[in-house]
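Notebook B, p. 112. Complex prediction, attempt 2.
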Amino acid sequence: MNQSDRVQDLLDRRDIEDVILRYCRGIDRMDRSLIRSCYHHDATDHHGSFSGTVDEFLDWVFGLLARYTHSQHFVGNVLIEVEGDVAVAETYGIAFHRSEEDKPYLNLMTGFRYLDRFERREDGWRIATRTAVTEWSRVDDLAGRWETPEGLLTGRRDRGDALYALLSGLHEED
Amino acid sequence: MNQSDRVQDLLDRRDIEDVILRYCRGIDRMDRSLIRSCYHHDATDHHGSFSGTVDEFLDWVFGLLARYTHSQHFVGNVLIEVEGDVAVAETYGIAFHRSEEDKPYLNLMTGFRYLDRFERREDGWRIATRTAVTEWSRVDDLAGRWETPEGLLTGRRDRGDALYALLSGLHEED
Amino acid sequence: MNQSDRVQDLLDRRDIEDVILRYCRGIDRMDRSLIRSCYHHDATDHHGSFSGTVDEFLDWVFGLLARYTHSQHFVGNVLIEVEGDVAVAETYGIAFHRSEEDKPYLNLMTGFRYLDRFERREDGWRIATRTAVTEWSRVDDLAGRWETPEGLLTGRRDRGDALYALLSGLHEED
């Protein structure tokens, strides 16, 4: 690749990684339209016991998310290969789920990989198909393990999260 | 954005992400001046039960860090939006704290987010305000859980850490 | 640095980070040639109780990996400094190891850092020396903690992993 192609590759990969990170933000803040914008209109998702269209996926995942009080979809290794208008992205993740209910299956950590086919179309790079692969899962008994921090600012799943005040300050200055 | 603006956006975001990573290195190696250099002179930090200026923050956080024998501030998702000379960065993290003392509260994992307002001034991109949001916290009983590896190279919080020999080799070659 | 040098620095750092991520993919999918390609021919690795050439390292690490049914080498903070044809990369990681055997030491999480000296030679940026530093290690009793998900797609350590079908679709389209 020459220098200019390599810069374009960097820009494409940055766009793709941003989609992956916005997806996580959308899940953890329960922002359905943000998640939806990460996928093409005809995208499919294969996720644990679920397989179907992205709109079916959204119904399914919001049903699951409602069982928890918090989630954090923490991603690390994002390895992307771009070929023209198609790309493959492998993303390593750990999801932390918490509930106020003292039930082990509502308080778990899961290691996973997202295997995504991205396509660049008129509305840019978005997910065409996603497959989530589970690597491991850990369910813990709770007594004395998880603590709800007192007196600390904690994350929220609505527009009251501190993120939104910060972002709205950014855009006011335009 | 045209290509040249998009490249500038990449460079800005790289600079901002570097500041976030240098902050983590500074905390984990207990390098006060490195942490200080991540903030503008008049920056503020809102961090757990603490809220104040960056210099007050440094006093507070070094008091906390002294209670542990190791820390690792592991960050993943870094989602940055730049608007001119202001940027908002949301960073997901997990902090691991370890002590040789067999006390649960000195051996904990915490999931958090850093919500940063960055500003570009004469000395470049630095944090203007930071808010740390706690997502979850886990305190474990210790027996048979944490191990101090024997015969392995372990991290240090002073210039004896293996990082510094490697970095000094890099700069000698200039 | 002027703009053009800064863009070159971005490209160099992207190449270096890709090597680090390909190494993790190689370890977790047990792809020996992929791991080998991350190192220069005369590279050395200092890794826990092991120290030697990269080929000796491969023999040693494949012996270890065979004891587990899964591994996930999850990396976050990657802080890279490039000086000409040499670079230092510090990478934070957490390794998850799982076995079907109910033995604590086969089911552990380890926090580490890779401290790498990279060199750019005719075949590009590769590792010249790697030192792995252990930060912490956690061995858990198993009952009721780790679960093998049923009915979920799980990761594999051979060409049957879902990654390879996705990648081969990408390259067919060339």
